[in-house]
Amino acid sequence: MKKIHVVCVTLIALFLSSLVAGCTNSANQVGPSPSPSSVGLISQHRMTSAPSSNTLPPSQTVATKRASSVASGRGAPGAQLRTTVAPESNADSWLLTGVPVHRGSEMRVFTELYSLSEHKNICGAVNYYIDDRAAGGDWHISKGDACEAISGWLRLYPADTMRLSRGLHTLKIDYLGNAKYAPSQYVARFTITDKAPSSTAISA
Asked: What's the CATH number where 106 sits?
């Protein structure tokens, strides 16, 4: 009996030792945990490689450049020189004093385009409207030294004034301006009558 007891104790001891050895080997196979410094380097690298929130996408960057180039091409606001546009005081005295225009007669409006800061008449194309519609007839634009007197004129033929009804009408002279000169506008009212025209056509 004593021999059997010794053998059993020996077997149990061997079994327990083998279990302990197996656990130790498996524990040795696990690698060391990363140090705090190595974790910090990884985090810093990821943050650096991520795109910055202040960086515009390529499409927005291109759009911004185009907008800047367009704005710079037109110049800074307020850089244009102020102008006035108005009928020439002598030739257009009929319009300025309210003399009516007879239907079926010729009508002319001579225009002065003036630079306020340069104190001189300038060249430039203007648009003519009667009752907010483009006036008919001929629109003449002066060039060169002729602009010192008038920048141009509107000429309505008898057929053009025949289309206008009797009564009050609105004449608008519109200068759109350019890179140097600011736009300006003139508005006046004139009267069309059915009275038979005189032998000489009315010209302003």
From this structure: 2.60.40.10
